[in-house]
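Why do we bother with a discrete structure alphabet at all? Because it lets us treat a fold like text: something you can write down, compare, and reason about line by line. To make this less abstract, here is a complete entry for Inositol-pentakisphosphate 2-kinase. Read it the way you would read a sentence in a foreign language you are learning: slowly, and without expecting to understand everything at once.
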Amino acid sequence: MACLADTHPADWSYLSEGGATIVFSYKGPPSPIFEGNVLRLRKCTLNDESTPPLGPEIDPAVDFQKKCIERLIPAAYLPRLEPVAVGPNADAWLAALAAQCEPRRPYERRQKDRIDVRRPRAVLATDLVGSQGIAVEIKPKWGFLPSPTHLSDLTRPVKTRTCRFCMHSHLKAQQGDSVSLDYCPLDLYSGDESRVMKALNALWDAWKESDGAVNNLKVFVRGNKIDPAEQHSILDMVSGATDPKEGLTSALLPVLINTPVLRTISRLQRTLDALDIEGLAALWGCAPGGADPTLAEWGDFISTYLAAPAPSPPADPAHLRYHVLAYILSATFKDCSVIVRVPDGTASVIDLDVKDVGRLPRWERLDREIVAAYTAIPEKNRKCCLDGSKS
């Protein structure tokens, strides 16, 4: 197995990060092992004093993708993931890399978390942004309106009219966060050219107005993440373009219309979340969720799901475990990202880590908070989100 200690921390350049991982691109001397790959490292909170992972742990994302996700999304639309050992003095090597990248990390991230230097293994993934063209990372989010069946009389008229993302954006804006109030995921997922273009324009505008703070859109040119101030570098990559926004959105549109990726994500989200968090909470009562599933249990669940993905088992306590796993897996697809490459014309799905069952009560509380904030808006001022992709 490859060993990161065979490289110098300076061979790795900070690329991007999400809630659970931080990603580096390889800039070192020629290497058949590391070239063409990015390095994914797990993060932990700043005050995490828990017991370090023991033994030669393989990041669960590797096995989860190979044994579970690839049964739901074809491998052609996924990055290749491989485990990699950090090597001798792993904590010192990781600490050096962490110190090197810290000034480049977003301020708000630095206040919350850091590289987990206690982990002896990491993940190498296909480098989907390190080309001579443009790569755009889109975090599409929730792509459907819930079924009214398991909603309360209070929430039904709200949740079946305005999508979860748009309601959550309203709450975040009230709290002072940078959000994309004009972007609706249902437009992006619709498959309709005018609506998809509307979504792309809204994502671009939010990216530009927030100076890149909104995380639903990231733009990479020649393997480097750019800020809105550097947008004119896009013109070098898009033939005939005179305006960066028009050039990029026009290049992205046909890829997003033709790829099956968005349709697949939306279908998985919808069919796995048959009850909404409200219906699921009504089932779990005082014992939400249970233990995190093993890889074997995930495999059995996916076999059951694929045998008859619709309709799902009835909303009955006897089927609680099925619905818990289904909702957890739906959350993975609600939080994934799509990398679109121009001019390659390819789309790939990334960030498909499994979520923890322990998050369910927190998600249920957040759902109530989001709906309560949105219900306070006069009905005539609420957004009407069109769910036009129910296949």
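What the structure line is telling us, in plain words: Residues 39 and 124 are 5 Å apart (CA to CA). The mean pLDDT is 92.
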